[in-house]
């Protein structure tokens, strides 16, 4: 079966910032389907609560009318979203995943995608996260959290590469 590719952009809403635009422009130029994922919080007062400015897509990454939008309430985009079916109906078996946050929504979604049999690429430089404390209370930098999450995914669930390397490999 010929590989069919889609780009999945996770939670790039106004409440988040990242350089994902290059992958979007490349995917549009290649006519690859793009799936825009929006987190809709169940917590009243959250910046991702429906109707809050933070829940809207960033203008530069706004979906075009023909691009698919998925809303989720949990980190994993495949849970109760219909995304797996949407991809299978279109024969899509290869995914590029980018977005936020690396150790949360990105990692959860990539693990599921890999377990479901998709060939997954994670654009390491088009994902990001935030500093946090580990279980022993030691503060970890955003880069440390990001690197460990990507290491968890590399090989078993996905191929982790830069956006440029992914574009070069998949353009051949």
Automatic annotation (TrEMBL):
KW Ribosomal protein (keyword) present: no
InterPro entries assigned: Isochorismatase-like_dom (IPR000868), Isochorismatase-like_hydrls (IPR050272), Isochorismatase-like_sf (IPR036380)
Gene3D superfamilies on file: Isochorismatase-like (3.40.50.850)
CDD domains, sorted: nicotinamidase_related
Molecular-function annotations in GO: hydrolase activity
Domain of life: Bacteria
Residue ranges of domain Isochorismatase-like in the record: 6-163
Signal peptide segment: none
Keyword Hydrolase: yes
Keywords, comma-separated and alphabetical: Hydrolase
Pfam families membership: Isochorismatase
SUPFAM superfamilies for the chain: Isochorismatase-like hydrolases
Full protein name: Cysteine hydrolase
Taxonomic classification: Bacteria, Pseudomonadati, Pseudomonadota, Betaproteobacteria, Burkholderiales
